[in-house]
Design a protein that fits this description.
- The structure is a single chain.
- By secondary structure, the chain is mainly alpha-helical.
- The chain contains 11 helices and 3 strands, in the order H-E-H-H-E-E-H-H-H-H-H-H-H-H.
- The chain has 2 domains: about 90 residues, Winged helix-like DNA-binding domain superfamily/Winged helix DNA-binding domain (Arc Repressor Mutant, subunit A); about 140 residues, Four Helix Bundle (Hemerythrin (Met), subunit A) (Up-down Bundle).
- About 65% of the residues lie in helices and about 5% in strands.
- Helix 6 packs antiparallel against helix 7, helix 7 packs across helix 9 and helix 7 runs parallel beside helix 11.
Length: about 250
């Protein structure tokens, strides 16, 4: 039994029964999955404790059963389950969706940064999650900038600013965004460039000041959750741009 399958099944169970008990969840999993075996209970415990640490579950079922193994879905957890936010609590599923959205091999630094961002987010390190997602965004802007500079289009407005800006910097990201908007792009792609690139740029702006120093205060969980959930489509747009801009 793999953890991703267990996690997805537990999400479905919690949607139906938000106030429950560890043993009741295991019984429901056993009925739902023919491949579930007795030794899989240890992996199931890992899934449930992950959800407790992440704030999706909390101890207690009612006033008479306030302690573990009784649990209930928190208000935050209910939002995750009802609005599809639970994907952020399923790292394997998230990366799979990211790869499906992009459709082409993803740069290793992007995948590594995304996995690190998810780990940080799920343990409450929201500033760290933003910084790691921003590193992925910087990689995407660097790739776009390299493509623009290799295009040979010396007359492209903003190209000199891209060439002058340091790699992996807010300046380069802003210069690339400006230059891309002046490129001849397919109409369907042009419509999505502004919102998607602006979302990636917002990650970089939130992670650091213009001079590169850290930004404070720490972002809120819901704010970072929004960035996490929006990133797959933003990343896919960046890769579609790379295809469109490659000579």
């Amino acid at each position: 039994m793999d953890k991703a399958t267990l996690r997805s099944t537990v999400f479905d169970i919690l949607k139906r029964t938000p106030q429950t008990h560890f043993h009741a969840i295991e019984n429901d999993v056993r009925r739902a999955l023919e491949t579930y075996e007795r030794h899989d209970v240890l992996l199931l415990q890992e899934v449930l404790w992950d959800l407790l640490v992440q704030g999706v579950l909390a101890p207690g079922k009612n006033s008479l059963n306030l302690n573990l193994p009784f649990v209930h879905v928190t208000e935050y957890g209910a939002q995750c389950l009802e609005e599809g936010r639970a994907l952020a609590h399923d790292p394997d599923g998230y990366v799979q969706q990211l790869e499906t959205s992009v459709g082409t091999p993803i740069d290793e630094i992007v995948l590594h940064s995304v996995r690190g961002a998810l780990s940080a987010f799920l343990t409450g390190g929201y500033a760290s999650a933003v910084i790691l997602l921003a590193r992925a965004a910087e990689c995407l802007f660097d790739r776009l900038g390299d493509t623009l500079l290799c295009d040979g289009g010396a007359d492209l407005p903003g190209r000199s600013e891209v060439a002058a800006a340091p790699r992996s910097s807010r300046r380069r990201a802003e210069a690339v965004g400006h230059a891309v908007r002046n490129c001849a792009l397919p109409e369907s792609l042009r419509e999505s460039v502004d919102p998607q690139l602006n979302g990636l740029l917002a990650l970089i702006q939130l992670s650091r000041q213009l001079d590169g120093s850290p930004r404070w205060p720490e972002p809120a969980r819901d704010q970072v959750l929004g960035f996490v959930l929006l990133f797959p489509e933003q990343c896919a747009t960046a890769y579609r741009l790379l295809d469109a801009l490659t000579p």
